[in-house]
Amino acid sequence: MKFYALSLFILFTSSLLGQEVISLWPEGVPNQKFTLEKEHWVQTDILRIDNVQNPTLEIYSPSKANQNGKAVIICPGGGYKILAYDWEGTDIAKWFNSKGITAFVLKYRLPNSPSLIKPQWAPLQDAQRAIRIVRKEAKKWNINPTQIGVMGFSAGGHLASSLGTHFEENTLEDSYSNPINQISARPDFMILVYPVITFDEKYYHAGSKNALIGENTSKGIIDYFSNNLQVTKKTPPTFLVHSADDDAVPYQNSILFFEALQTYSIPSELHLYPKGGHGYSLALKKGKLEGWTERLYDWINALN
Predict the structure, then answer these.
(1) What are 223-257's pLDDT values in tens digits?
(2) Quick check: 37 and 53 in contact, CB under 8 A?
(3) Tens of pLDDT along 282-303?
(4) Rounded to whole angstroms, how far apart are CA atoms 225 and 233?
(5) pTM of whole model > 0.85?
(6) Is the dihedral angle over the CA atoms 177, 126, 70, 236 positive or is it negative?
(7) Is residue 30 domain-resident?
(8) Helix/strand/coil (H, E, C) string of the chain?
(9) Total number of domains constituting the chain
(10) Is 212 a member of any domain?
């Protein structure tokens, strides 16, 4: 009897502490054909996910007493080939919770999946859907629908900046048949951490570019997905972090985006650190670089 009671307690506790995960497309994933493909989850030093078949949002909420109404949708990086799901996703969500901010980790489709029909559109379709869901259900999660941001690391930064510059793009064939598609997909702010921005080969990350749009593609498509060229007066306020010694994604990616934002007088802040390399997540034990999260917190608090 004691064992039974203990089992019930453990089951209840696990349910209470577990994170809610919701499907982005419960009625069927668009731009995807049926295959026998399976997602791959590999846990080593970090959790790597590839071949995403069921895009989801994992929800991390602070206690109601600490919630401040702000929310961030997090796009982990991985070169559009994998998702560094905990390193640049759930670990970041927990940090946001410590600041009273509700966080959503986006498990988005990757363009190398054989299940996709038009691979280059799938990540943006998932990002647009994610912010529409969060905005639609804002009251449920005690969120202010006008204070929902998007964050991305590396290739996830490219996806986040794509959402911030292409939020009005009609990426779905049935966009007018579902009321949720009438909800704005514009982020209220963006956070881009060592982001891929340009697909111009002068400063690009070849792996991300080739994974998303292929090695041989037109200049029109290259320019379309070079998000520094897509900034308008509607682009949201943006916070950028990069390291000058990044040998994977050149720091000029952030410079180009910052300069484009300044052209339209969009509130923006760029932190360029001399050292840090690429892929440092929270930058724990990295000296001065570790302070980037506090700079971010100050910036978020200063937003109107």
Answers:
(1) 999 999 999 999 999 999 999 999 999 999 999 99
(2) yes
(3) 999 999 999 999 999 999 999 9
(4) 18
(5) yes
(6) negative
(7) no
(8) CHHHHHHHHHHHHHHHHCCEEEECCCCCCCCECCCCCCCEEEECCCEEEECCCCCEEEEECCCCCCCCCCEEEEECCCCCCCEECHHHHHHHHHHHHHCCCEEEEEECCCCCCCCECCHHHHHHHHHHHHHHHHHHCCCCCCCCCCCEEEEEECHHHHHHHHHHHCCCCCCCCCCCCCHHHHCCCCCCEEEEECCCCCCCCCCCCHHHHHHHHCCCCCHHHHHHCCHHHCCCCCCCCEEEEEECCCCCCCCHHHHHHHHHHHHCCCCEEEEEECCCCCCCCCCCCCHHHHHHHHHHHHHHHHCC
(9) 1
(10) yes
- Cβ 238 vs Cβ 220: under 8 Å: no
Q: For residue 231, is it within any domain?
A: yes
Tokens 């982020």, located at residue: 187
CATH number where 55 lies: 3.40.50.1820
CA 33, CA 227: separation in Å to the nearest integer? Answer: 29
What is the span of the domain harbouring residue 57? 45-302
> Could you tell me if 257 and 272 are in contact, meaning their C-beta atoms sit under 8 angstroms apart?
no
Classify residue 173: in a domain, yes or no. Answer: yes
